[in-house]
Design brief:
CATH architecture of the largest domain: Alpha-Beta Complex
Strand content: 15-25%
Radius of gyration: 20 Å
CATH topology of the largest domain: Quinone Oxidoreductase, Chain A, domain 1
Structural class: alpha+beta
Number of domains: 2
Order of helices and strands: EEEHEEEEEEHEEEHHEHHEHEHEHEHE
Shape: globular
Number of helices: 10
Largest sheet: 7 strands, mixed
CATH class of the largest domain: Alpha Beta
């Protein structure tokens, strides 16, 4: 293929380069994709700033990016459900082994799973990328590439809600946008019934009381998206007895929390690790119009300006920064 494959490659902490890399041929069960839209995730920025996340340490150059959608260019010999021209969203986690986690339907927990832009596995912030065809999902005509890329963060929400038991009529507290008025404003536009701006010197029990006053009752479920110790404490104090606290945000390895308070009130503490079996539901939610993720994209950059895009995300500007990888199509 005569096309060039511009890629955003992280060489080391703070060393992000835009360079040309070879275009891979798809294996029998793979497809070659022309990438269109790739969102920048906090984890991408963390690798760029620190060179590692927990036990995942960058040891050799790695292409970043895992919130992605693109167009099929070529299919492997064993692929029958996709064809060139199909628009697809990419699930970045692909199990390598049919282990016990895979057989239980929890393939996200498999210790050998491939995951885009998690060392040593390359991501898809590039012009062309090959991926397992079974983890590429065809997008309906009324779902844009950018919406397809946002299925990845949407999937985190879907998986968290499933694990927490969120259903019709659930009263839910979400901790995440609390310090920023503009983000709370977007949350309100997208369906949050109440907003509470948090000040840095607010105490956890004091905030829990405010939550109860605003809702008229303690929430049955709290989805904690920050990973900050004080927010986890607030989540535990705020949640009603017999309720569930869902830990989505990742923070310090060791955290001090009011464990006895949670235990004697039978508040369940649950975690999530990425997601599994969420793409079909997410696509249905977007296609039906029941969920609107379009307002979340606040900044767009061509792939050539990836470093500037990462700086924008690192500075906390806007909400979702989207990189456009197809030089001939910069549309959503």
């Amino acid at each position: 293929m005569a096309e060039e494959n511009l890629s955003a490659v992280l060489y080391a902490k703070g060393d992000l380069r835009i360079e040309h890399r070879p275009i891979s041929e798809p294996g029998p069960n793979e497809v070659l994709l022309q990438m269109h839209s790739v969102g920048i995730c906090g984890s991408d920025v963390h690798y760029w700033q620190h060179g590692q996340i927990g036990d995942f340490v960058l040891k050799k150059p790695m292409v970043l990016g895992h919130e992605a959608a693109g167009r099929v260019v070529k299919v492997g010999s064993a692929v029958s459900h996709l064809k060139p021209g199909d628009r697809v969203a990419i699930e970045p986690g692909v199990p390598r082994d049919m282990d016990e986690f895979f057989k239980r339907g929890q393939y996200n927990l498999s210790p050998t799973i491939f995951f885009c832009a998690t060392p040593p596995d390359h991501g898809n912030l590039c012009r062309y990328y090959t991926h397992n065809a079974n983890f590429c999902y065809k997008l309906p005509d009324n779902v844009t590439f950018e919406e397809g890329a946002l299925i990845e963060p949407l999937s985190v929400g879907i998986h968290a809600c499933r694990r927490a038991g969120v259903t019709l009529g659930s009263t839910v507290l979400i901790c995440g946008a609390d310090l920023f008025a503009e983000r709370l404003g977007v949350a309100k536009e997208l369906g949050a019934d109440f907003q509470l701006t948090v000040k840095k010197d607010d105490g956890a029990q004091q905030l829990a009381k405010k939550v109860e006053e605003i809702l008229g009752a303690q929430p049955q479920i709290t989805i904690e998206c920050t990973g900050v110790e004080s927010c986890i404490q607030t989540a535990l104090y705020a949640t009603c007895s017999g309720g569930v606290v869902m830990l989505v945000g990742l923070g310090a390895a060791m955290t001090t929390v009011p464990l006895v308070n949670a235990a004697v009130r039978e508040v369940d503490i649950r975690g999530v690790f990425r997601y599994c079996n969420t793409w079909p539901m997410a696509i249905a939610m977007l296609s039906s119009g029941k969920v609107n993720v379009k307002p979340l994209v606040t900044h767009r950059f061509p792939l050539e300006q990836a470093v500037q895009a990462f700086e924008t995300t690192h500075q906390g500007l806007g909400i979702k920064v989207m990189l456009k990888c197809d030089k001939n199509d910069q549309n959503p």
